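Intended use. Records like the one below are meant for learning the mapping from a protein sequence to its folded structure. Do not use them to infer anything beyond what is encoded.
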Amino acid sequence: MAYAKSARGGAYPRKSFGFNRALLPHPSDYFMSQGLILTGGGEWKSATCPFHNDTRPSLRVRLDTGAFCCMVCGAKGGDVLAFHMQRHGLRFIDAARALGVWGKSQ
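Structure written out for the chain above:
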């Protein structure tokens, strides 16, 4: 077990976080479950942006990493967890729990 040093000089067991990135849903499955209709070829797919009143596809998403960027409103992030946090207004831990990737220490 790893130990961290406290401010007073004593050692205590380091707690492990309950976040497991490997359990994040695959980006294509996640974005489809969020109602996005993905179009286009190549690495970046297009969809209408759920972060603003969008009539043309302005959101770009990568299906290998889950990264996303809206060319109109500027919403962006690096994975489906960041998308979930922004879309539903959740904190990191709450979004991780909602996606099933946060639990008791592993």
